[in-house]
Amino acid sequence: VKMIIFSVFLILPSLFVFVNGGKLPEPEVKIEVIHKPFMCYRKSKYGDMLLVHYDGFLESNGTMFHSSRKQGDQNPVWFTLGIREALKGWDKGLQNMCTGERRKLTVPPSLAYGKEGKGKIPPSSTLIFDIELMEIRNGPRSHESFQEMDLNDDWKLSKQEVKEYLKKEFEKHGYSPNDTHHEVMVDDIFKNEDEDKDGFISAREFTYQHDEL
Prior knowledge:
single chain; alpha+beta; Chitinase A, domain 3; Recoverin, domain 1; six-stranded antiparallel β-sheet; two-stranded antiparallel sheet; 10 strands; about 25% strand; disordered N terminus
């Protein structure tokens, strides 16, 4: 989850299957609020960037398959809500959440890793997550983010402007800058977001959000 934040931060509109003009019903995520702060100044919404700590368990036997609190560098992780950057179950289960709130999500296989499974997660597994929301920031598709990236105020983003933004964000979060890696990420971003292929990402191309979000 950790390094996906900016490599896909402008990418991946949600895909839905339509039958007879309507969406196929999807199983729901069971949400239990473990803790809610007394004061709530802002609630999470699609497009926001969320910083979370989480523990993940298999419902079948209670085995922990990952924990940001206990494994790796033990730092919380960033992801953007609503663009399939994390599991579908997270996109559904972490809406309207306050900073400092803690939730238990029970995520069915179709909103997790499906019939294939992944790594330590067997096929068709229902997953349980204990998730605490540490911080909410304006998402990468927000008008504020566009203005921050548009260094010359011409209402379009060049590859150099996007590269500078990525470099700054990586440094802000403690990652060493890697120009080669940034070049690849910028190419991926423009491949997906520069719809008219003019070499720039316009304000409309940047801020446009698909109806599914």
